[in-house]
Structures are given as structure tokens and as C-alpha cells.
TrEMBL record, chains A, B, C, D, E, F:
GO molecular function: amino-acid racemase activity
Organism of derivation: Kwoniella bestiolae CBS 10118
Gene3D superfamilies for this protein: 3.40.50.12500
Family statement: Belongs to the HyuE racemase family.
InterPro entries: Asp/Glu/hydantoin_racemase (IPR015942), Hydantoin_racemase-like (IPR052186), Iso_Racemase_Enz_sf (IPR053714)
Protein name: Asp/Glu/hydantoin racemase
Domain of life assignment: Eukaryota
């Protein structure tokens, strides 16, 4: 069952943003729902596609294509219901660009939004991601988005797969993540801002910050994606339709 | 008299952001105050330095240095009063980096914030600025901030000086700005997003959008700066203190 | 019915390359088949997906996702039949990366292959593509592939849509294409190599070269994609599996 | 005696490519001849200049200039005999650009050709070269050719000089090369493709691949140079004469 | 008392350059004066601002702004006395750009001048600076000046603060600096040119060179700044006034 | 007869710089000699190779190779006579790098030296060169030297060949050059600094400056090359021998 209800059923006149977890793991979507604070002027809905229309986790381009196709099939007929969209996969997921073509409502990505915010807070931003393969994948994606210079400390793998975040004991997950944040990003790479590099890490920012030296910044990418989308919605900005996102 | 009151005196427990117009022209500050919508969860204060501690407009690096020194002398003793700061000069004004060193509260710039937001809305962002000299100055500043690839349509001068925005008849100002937006950015440079490139252009976005082809995006930089700062404040993110902004 | 007809039924021991036209327009696939010369040591098969599993032409990211998903559903079970693959859409089509993940046989793209070959022949390579929207799309894709410096004269739109190539009278198509090649690429942008920027332009290289000044180079992207794939097959090189294309 | 015969004396109507080893060490040329497989549709000739017109190995720019001048003096009068040229020195050897000026037949370089092919196979290509000095030299050359982003794992020195490849016992050579490929490129730098960085390493690719983890790609640069040149010849593409290679 | 006399009172007709130490530590200024050789055709004057108009050392952007404002207040009325200016702070100090706006006489920076000269002498230039915070600050500044590719070995901190150079025993200072030059720049980063990264390191180049391997180059930034300024003065070149340095 | 005497026979103890015009046109060398002012502390010698060891003008890479080989054959045995060298061809002439390998005395290029100096004077430097072919050649060379960002206004051809500078009536030469400087660089490209892009343009800077708007900067490349070399000689800096210029 792909849809989840919105936690904040504010008045019907509030603009609504749809947070899309593009994999089929509903517990990730629920984690996002729990971690996002209610906003007084924007309502949030949450969605994930069903299996096998989309995979349980996204580990590369093949998964991204399947996931995007699965989401689009379900969402395309009803896109008019939302004033904004957040694609909550930490990658240059093709759903982001596809949605920008299909609707005028603004669409943000949980990969680019935290990097954009981070550029206000430090000069050596680093990303803590899941399995080793995401290092070259994210390096490629960040370059494609012209954001490499905003990510000077690069991408570090925790060695955990996306589904490990869900299935391993939480203590072991946190031990692994905090060790990499501290040793690899803070100490070796001299990062001054850490972006959590997976939608499944939603809500872990404070615990990771706690192990770092005072003054480190840790950013939750899902919250960042929702905040940036909220700004665009509040400013009544829409996707530009005279260039790359023109509808054919 | 440098201080202006906040238009939204919400409850005393709300976090407050200080919007700094770093030149001494109070009518610009008032324009910002008028154009910013009240936010339900953040209060705004407005400030500009007094003349001759700071110049009436900022036309280069010498003016920036004077302006930054003037603002810092007045603001430094009381920085603890705000949870966030917006430096409302459309440049890489040194006050931005200086404030990031002096306080942990996040600081945004009305140059970088609209470019960061715009990257979600189009792929050929262009800037409409004031006098011709701001073209090389902004080109330099945008490069220094690693944002050149997010501003593919470049910087266009309207030929108007900063103070022309204030002193010329509004009709003539709008005629000039809309012509350049249309002819130079939309048509010649194929921009799909236009960022207004001067704090003094606050509130002019809708009129400029109206002359462009349906689907053009026009961004008010002051509103963008306040929105991005608001996001950082809501996320309780602070300036990183382990790298470039460490206090010595 | 998606097709697989090999024009060159050489001995069964020859390695086979599959040329994939990822849209559903069979006449484009037939054009590719007609334009490719038989090779003495490699056999070619041709494929396109059926409608509506894939669109008749690809005009953006949404179409790419649909097209990739459609092709993958049909091809995935039988990938072991080929020693190499050519993705014959002039874009950074996600099928290219997805196939590199799914198989070890080399995969080339008709966007990158002609640019790689062109870098041996000149220093101001330009692309002649179809509708205006492909200009920002291809500019983005070429950057994502790190090939922008190998395409110094940039991308020029002919104003024709992909399907215009098929449906308009050939004379009018050629008039439009040759005019843009000559006026915009050769003269205005000083290109010394022109890459035809659409799979549907297969076989048009000689006519376009004929209108340019002696010494211009015009490259057919489909032939280029097949040649580069053939080189990789002959060298028995396979896709690397220790990094970005590792199977999860 | 500078000329070697072609190993494949196919019919006189076949196009011929000249493989130029631009140093005077004939055993390198013979190694190239042995390692290149006969092609059914293109004949290969091999050449190296005589000493002291050219040095026995090329260790920098002075050697390159001498080598290029020596080759050009001998070859210039007879360039019309070949349909393509391969400059088989792993550097941005000036002979490559000079030949492109002097003839319309395509010219490839064994530095750029394997990097171009490798970009289809992985995203972290690394080079294994000879003496330490070639690290800054090749880093410079690869940048000059706009290929740095296609060589993300950089250049590694084996510590062997070019002539060590010839004079040291083969076992010791292979021990040194395989150790560096494994330890420095595969493990430390996370390369997923290794390009052998010296014409004298022709034919060593399979042995080096054998020590790496399954899935590593190793490219022989001489074979790559010949394959890319063969593609250009088959496509009847010629060097562009309207720009950088115009004859004065 | 901010002014120091010129050591070389050549004839009154000689052009004069003002060397500006923009912090208030007079012993640094005196060190510069001692280390600069008399030139037969250009006279040198030396200046530093007084405390508290400027800080005793510059450790970031806030200090730079204060320092620039302090210097400009004292110097602005008398800029016509000099034919050239050297801003002797190893950073992109805003005084440099401000002076270029205020006068036509050429202005050089001791950050950019040694990097420009070094590009003639090697390909892996590295900088040895003071406290760790200067690493991200200088990395930013060098990028802003478009000089990153001329500084391939990057910036290394010695761990000493600017004032440590003055207050610690000289032996300990030299021990620390030579160790970092040798271990970090020469060995780890393979630098072939070392630029001393602080105005307070004036005159230390020979001692640092002495510990490195024969063939290392060590550049004194203050001498470099004066030499480049001298060249501009001798060539009668002035700051361009048609672009970024136009006076408003 | 390749050698010319030095115009300034100062005391024998003065360091001497050799200015190398690497083509065989002696009148260019004489023009350089006439245009360079005597320096009180450095003596200048002038050299050009003889024909046919080197061509009368350099119009590409083949000419550069011939020219470099011709110069090196004559100069190599006597390099110890000079404390510095200026390669007076406005290109990335291979003689520059070859000399840096062969000697420790500093070597400057009249392509890079004026760009380095210009970076102190403006932010949109442009080059006025000879024939159209030099536009792609110089664009390539400037990139190879990492100097593209210091040449933002790019390269403009005057349409004159190198030898036209010598053979056409001076009035016509100046008319052509001043028109291009004014119309193309000052007006169209908004250059604020113009570098004369040919050794044969030595001494023409003032006339070209005279036609431009007050505040334009025009740089003579030969004078710039000699000034930068003089700085290196005075600072007793030598070519680094631990990296790219190590002697093998």
C-alpha cells in the first residue's frame, strides 16, 4: 500500500508538499514522517511506491530507473494535488528531473538541498554514505549537479548497505556511523560540515554530532529537502518552463 | 538612527533574524521591511548603518570594506540578540564571512541564497544587476563562492546605478529593468530563471516576471536570503567552527 | 514486436553487438540498419522497444526513464546473447549506465562515442541537434560525462523535432540541417568538427559535409557508437566491476 | 634502419596505418608488432627513427622535441602512403599535433586513445607509468588534452625507467609493475580501470590484470591507439582543416 | 607611529613603491625593510597601521576588514605619493582590491605575486603557512584569484600562529618550519616549489631551502611582491580603469 | 648569422639574460633589441636561429618543433653563459620547457609572463594576435598552462600573418591592429587589459593604447617576458629540479 497519511492535517487551505521515498521500504518512509516537525504553514504527505514496482533499496542506476518508472506510474495522474515535491533518495534520482518536466510545482532533492544549505555553514562539506559503491556514484552525481566545489571533503562510505540501516541493531549502526564521521570526515578529511548521505539516516544527525568535536555541523538530508522545498513554496516560485524543464 | 523595528512582534520566544542592509540608505531598508511577509515562527528585525560610518550605496570593494567596518562597529557588541543574520547586499560582502567568524548563528547572503534556490528551478540562471561595473565584480564574487556553474546565463547590467533605483521615477526604473530582463536575459541569453541582482530591487519580482514569457522564474534576492536563513534557524543549524570560521 | 534482425549473418562464432534504438519508432531502427556497413569480424543486431512500453521519441528525462524501463524489461533476461551494446539515443540515456551495471559486455553511447572520436580530429567540436529543448539537456549531459571541454563549439538546435526528421519531406529536413551546420556551427561558432546530434540523423553526414567548407568533419553518431563498441569487443575489454558499475 | 615491414600483407587495396614508435629502440617497435593482432580490413606498418636522429627513450620535453624533429625529417616526404597514423609514445608527443597539421589522414596518440576508450568502462581510471618524473609530465599532458576528469585515479610511477622495461629481467619488471597496479592503483586509489602508461609496456596487460581482483580492466595503450585509428579510417574521417590543424 | 622611512633614499626623481604591512606589528615591517635589497631604480617606503586602528595580526576576514579600514583611513588622502603599492599580507586582503579602485598606480599582493613567479619554476607549488585556520582561508582565497591550478601541492599549516613567528625563540620557529617544509611539502606532497605563506616569514627562504633536497625552490613572498610591483612600475603599466577597477 | 650583440654592455659582472626569438627573421630580433630599455643591473643578449634550421615564422606545432630543434642544436652547448632566458614566441613554445629541463637558470615565456602581470591590473584580459589559426592554438596553449581564467576576454585575431607585421606598410598594420583592439576587445568583449599576442608586435603597445578609451592597459609581451625573467634573476631563483624539470 503506497500511501501514508499526512501527520499534520492542518486546514485544507494549506499548501501541501509530497515527500517521496522512492524505494518500497515503508519503514524508511515512516522514519521520515516521524523525524519531520510539523510546520505551521505547510502540510506534508508521504509516499513510497509498492514492491515490485520499485525495489526495496536503490543501489545504482538500474534501481533508480525502476524506482522512477514505478513512482511515475502511480503519481503521474495525481501530481496536481501538491504544491511541492521532495525526492527523498540521496542521489541524482531521475525522478527529480522527470517531475520538474511534468509539473510546475517546485521539486527538491535530498542530495542537493543539504549541500546548498551547507554552503552557508562551512567550506569543507563531506558526505557520510552507505555502501562503498555509493562513493563513485555520488561523486558522479554531485559533479553532474555542478555541486562538487560545495563538497570539498568528498564522500565517505560507512560500509553499511542501505538495508543494514534498517536491519542491523541500531547500536551497531550508530557505532559504525559515528566512527566514520569522527575518524574519516572530521579528522582525516578536515570536514567542517557533515551531510548524512542516505534517506534512511533521517533523524540520526544529533547522535552523530554528539561524537564530533564541538562546532561540527551535521545535516539531516530529508529535513533539508523539505525545508528548501518549503521555501520555494512559500515564495510561490515554480519550476522554470522556458529551458531544460519545458514540456514538449 | 540605524535601527528599525520589527514589523512582526510575535511572542518573545520566537527566534529573531536580523536583516542587515549594509548601506546607509534607510529607504532601501524600509523597502525590505515592506516586502517581506510575516512568518508564523520567526521574527525579523531590520538594520542599516548610519552615514558616514557606511556609504549610501556600495559600488565596489572600497565601499564594502567601509560598510563592513561600519556595521561591525555597531553590531559586534550585540550579536547575541539574533538567531540568524541576512546580509542584504547583492555581493560577496565581507560582512557575511566576518559575521560567520564572530557568531555561531547562521548567516546568509542575498547573493548566494537566490542562486542556491534557483538551482532547483532551472539550468540557465541569469542575474539582472545595476551599473556596468557590477558585471565584473559579481562575476568575480560568484566564482569566489564556487557558484559560477549555477549562474550559466551570467550577469547583465541594467545601466542603472543603485541609487537610481531610489531616485529615478519608478516608471522609468521599471521600463529599464523589464527591457533588460526580456531582451537580454530571456531572449539573448536564454535564461530560464532571473535573479534580481540588487538589494534595492526588493519587491520588483512580480512586475518583471509579468513582462516575460509564461514560465519564466524571477527571484527576489532579499526574500530568498531570509527564507534560506529561516530554514537554517528552524533546523537549528549553526555555523561550523572547526574550519574556515573557527574563532582565533 | 521489438525487433532483432541481423543484417550480416556471418559465421555463428562472430561476436555480436546489439544496437539499441531506445524509442519505439521502427523506421529509425531501420535507418540505422541501412547506414551501418557490414564488418568482417563483428555481427550487428538491432532492437527497439515497442509502444507504449517506450515512447516514439525521447524529448527529456521522463521519456528517458520510460524508455529505459521499457527496454530493460524486454532485454534484461537475454543480455547474455551479446558481446557489446550500443545505446543509440543521443543523450546520457540511463539505459547506458544501467546496462553497464547488469552485464560485463561493453556498452557505448552515441552521445559520448562521437565526441571521443572527434577529439582526435579538431579542437572546436560542435553538435547539431533537434528541438531547442535539447540544447540545455545536452549541455547538462555532456557536462555530467566530463566531456564539455571536448565540445567547445557547443550545442545548436536545428528547430526540428525528432519526429520531424521522419515526417517532414526529406528535402526540407536537409535544407534546415545544412543551413544550421553552415551558418551556426561553421561560421558563427567556428566549429572544425560537427557531430550530428540525434540517432535519427544516421546517414546524413555526407550531405551535411558537402555544404560546408572543404576540410570540415561531420560525424555520424550511430556509426561512431558502433565503431567504439567494436574496438572494445575486439580488444576483449569488459566493463569494470570494482567501482561505479559493481553489481550490488 | 628505421622501417619495419608490415606483418599483414593483405591485398594492396587495404588502407594502411603507420604505427610510429618515436624513439630509436627497435626492440620496442618489434614488441608492438608482435602484440598487435592482424585486422581483416586494415594493414599496419611500423616505424621508428634511427639514433641519433632520435633518442633511445623519451624522458621529457627535450627528448620529445628531438624525437619529433627526427621522425618528421624522415617521414614528411612520404606521409601520403598511409591512411592513418598512431604516435606510440605515452605522452602528448608534439609529433601528434605536427602530423595533424601536415596531413589529412587521422592521427591518434597512445596517451589519449586508451583514456577515451576507458571512459566507457569505468569512472576511476588510473595510469601506471615508468619513472617518477613522468607523473608530473603526464599530469600536465592529460590536463592539456582536457582529459583530467577521465583519469580520476591519477598517474602512478612504477619506479622503472623506460629502458628498464627492456633491460631488466622480465620477471623483475613484472613483479614491480604488478605490485604497483595492485597496491597503489587498485587498493589505495580505488581505480576500476588501469591504463598501461608506456609504449614499452605493450603486451603486458593480461599479466597485470591477472594479479588484480576479478573485474579490473587493464588497457594496452598501443592496441588502443591502433583501434581508435582504425575506427577513424574505417569511418573515412579526416583531420579537420578549418581550425587548429589548418595548414598555413 | 605608522610610518617608517625608506632605507634607500636615492634621488628624488626615482619612482617610489609603498610596502604596506597591514597589521600593527612594527617588527614585521622592520623585518621586511631589512630583507629587501636596494634597487637601483626604485625606492621603497614602508608602512603599517597603528593599533587599535588595525589588529596586531590578521587571522581571518574580520581582522582583514578592520585592517583594511584602518589602513585606508590613514593612507587614502596621500595615495598620490607612490607609483606602486605592495599589500604585504599573505591573503586576498581586501586592501589590494580597494587600492586598485582608488588609484591608478599598480598594486600587488604577496599572495598572488609569488604564485605567479613560481609558475615559471615548477609544476607543483606548495604553500607553508602559519595556523591551521589559514589552510581553508588560503584555499578559498587562491581559488577566488583563479590561482588554484598554480598551487597544485596545496597549503600546509606549520601550526605556528602569526605572532609565534615573532615571539617564540627563532630556533624553535625554524625547526618547526623546516620540518614541515621537508616532511609535508617536499616528501608527502611532492612539491617542487615552496612559497612561504606569511608576511612574517620574510627573509627565512634560504634557511628553509637549505634543509630541502638540492633543486628545491623556496620563494620569499614579500620580495616577490616587491619585484612584481617593480616590473609594473618600470613598464609604466597602470591599473585598468574600464572594468572591475573603474572608479564609480 | 644567429647572434646579435647586447645593446647594453654594462660591467662584466652583471648577470646576463638571453632573449631568444625562435624564428629566423632577424628584423624581429632587432625590433626586440630596440624596444627593450637598458636595465641598470641586468645585461641582455639577443639570439635568433638561422634559416633553414628554423622557419621565418612560427604558424603551428610543426614550426614550433623545427624551431625548437634548431635553437637547441645551436644553444645547448653554451647555455651556461646566461643567468636567464626569455623565449620570445607568443605561444607555449616547447623550447621553454626544454630549456627548463636543460638548465637551472630561470626561463620565461612571452605568452605566460604578460598574462601573469596582467592579472594584477584587470579582470578581463584579452589577447590580440595575428592570423585566425592562432586563436585555437593560443586557446589550447593558455589552457595547457592553466592560465585560461586569467584571460577572460579570450583571443582575437587581427587577420594579419606574422610576416605581414614585417612586410605590410606600417600604417596599414597599425590601422588593422588598432581597429581590432578597439572594436573587438575593448567594445565587444569588454576587455580591461590587452596583451599584444605576437613577438613581432614588440614596441606597438603605446600606439594601440592611444586609440582605446582612457584607462585601458596594453602590455608588450616581450618587455613583460624580460621583466619577469629579470625578477627571477634578481631574486636568485632557479628552476625547480625535484619535479617536472628534473634532469633524467
Amino acid at each position: 500500500m503506497p500511501f501514508l497519511l499526512s501527520p499534520i492535517e492542518a486546514g485544507p487551505s494549506l499548501p501541501r508538499i509530497l515527500v517521496i521515498n522512492p524505494n518500497a521500504t515503508i519503514t524508511f518512509t515512516e522514519g521520515m514522517q516521524r523525524s519531520l516537525s510539523p510546520s505551521p504553514d505547510i502540510a506534508l504527505d508521504f509516499y513510497n511506491p509498492s514492491y515490485p514496482a520499485a525495489p526495496y533499496s536503490i543501489e545504482g542506476v538500474y534501481d533508480s530507473v525502476t524506482s522512477a518508472a514505478g513512482c511515475l506510474e502511480e503519481l503521474k495522474p495525481q501530481l496536481g494535488r501538491w504544491s511541492g515535491f521532495v525526492v527523498a533518495c540521496f542521489s541524482n534520482h531521475p525522478l527529480t528531473e522527470a517531475l520538474r518536466e511534468l509539473t510546475s510545482s517546485p521539486v527538491t532533492s535530498i542530495l542537493s538541498a543539504p549541500l546548498l544549505l551547507a554552503s552557508n555553514l562551512g567550506s569543507r562539506v563531506g558526505i557520510l554514505t552507505t555502501s562503498p559503491r555509493w562513493v563513485p556514484l555520488l561523486t558522479h552525481d554531485i559533479h553532474a549537479l555542478h555541486l562538487s566545489p560545495l563538497c570539498a571533503a568528498g564522500v565517505v562510505s560507512s560500509g553499511l548497505s542501505v538495508l543494514d540501516l534498517e536491519h542491523l541493531p541500531r547500536e551497531r549502526v550508530m557505532q559504525t556511523l559515528t566512527k566514520m564521521a569522527k575518524d574519516e570526515l572530521e579528522v582525516s578529511r578536515q570536514a567542517d560540515v557533515i551531510v548524512l548521505g542516505c534517506g534512511g539516516m533521517v533523524g540520526l544527525d544529533r547522535e552523530i554530532k554528539a561524537v564530533c568535536r564541538e562546532g561540527m555541523v551535521v545535516i539531516d538530508p530529508v529535513v533539508a529537502g523539505v525545508e528548501v522545498c518549503g521555501s520555494l513554496v512559500r515564495m510561490r516560485l515554480q519550476t522554470g518552463k522556458l529551458g531544460i524543464y519545458a514540456q514538449s
